Amino acid sequence: MAKLIVSQNGEVIENCFLNEASFTIGSRTDSDLCLAIMGVSRSHARITSVGNDDILEDLDSTNGTLVNGRPIARHILQNDDVIEIANVQIRYRNHKAIDGPSFDRTMIIHASALEGGMPSQPVGAYALATAKQERRFKKGARLGLIREVKGAQPGAEIELSQVLHIVGTPGKQLAVINSRPHGYFITHVEGKKPARVNGKSIGKEPRPLTPNDVIEVGDEKLLFLLK
Question: Which part of the chain is the FHA domain (predicted)?
Fold first, then answer.
């Protein structure tokens, strides 16, 4: 289980464990890590667990989020990364991350970045190799799409042209659909219970999708298809 070591002015003030799919950081009192100090937005950042990996996102905060001294919008955390929010340092500890990026981690690279031949952020040689493999898959594979059966826009279709596509209702239930060289997979991200496919829970591990699968996630019912 990943751990956050929170320090301020050189002193450790808190230790947190990432034991939920979503972990919030901000000045709100209901944040998982509440930092009620100047320079911290109410909803400042979020860490989302996907498989064995943790993804840090800045939630359009006023003063931004740094990792190892560099501003980020989204960052795949690696062991010993230091997150900086205002004058607070948060060290990320996850010894599983030492072994290198998992397959799901490389899939978070945006498809448009792959077209340029480079991932949107440096995650090592393993990620580069997998990115090239993903690029070959994109050229020859049928494009996936989801059709909304129940929700805000019944009948609407969304092409899965990005490598990562989040579906569901924030704060209630979220899942991510990602493309791999051998097809599309859906993975639980947020919520007490995972999404359902064809009436059955997808569980905690990535589940392959096949044409005409019915996905129930959050307030939506979606039909997965291939073009």
Answer: 23-72
- Between vectors from CA 53 to CA 109 and to CA 78, what angle results, nearest 5°? 85
* In the chain, ranges of CATH 2.60.200.20 domains: 2-94, 140-226
Helix (H, G, I), strand (E, B) or coil at 7: strand
What span, in angstroms and rounded, lies between the C-alpha atoms of 113 and 121? 9
DSSP structure class, residue 143: P
Q: Which DSSP helix (H) or strand (E) runs through 56?
A: strand 53-58
**Burial class of residue 111, CB neighbours in 10 A (0-12, 13-18, 19+):** middle
Apex CA 54: angle with CA 118 and CA 34, to 5°?
Answer: 125
Q: What Cα–Cα distance (Å) separates residue 13 from each residue in 7, 19, 35, 104?
A: 5, 19, 11, 32
The CATH class of 2-94 is mainly beta
Burial, 120: exposed, middle or buried (Cβ in 10 Å; 0-12, 13-18, 19+)?
Answer: middle
Per-residue pLDDT, 125: 33
Q: Is pTM beyond 0.70 here?
A: no
Fold of 140-226: Tumour Suppressor Smad4 (2.60.200)
Tell me the per-residue pLDDT of 87-112, one tens digit each, with 9 for 90 and over.
999 999 987 654 444 434 433 333 32
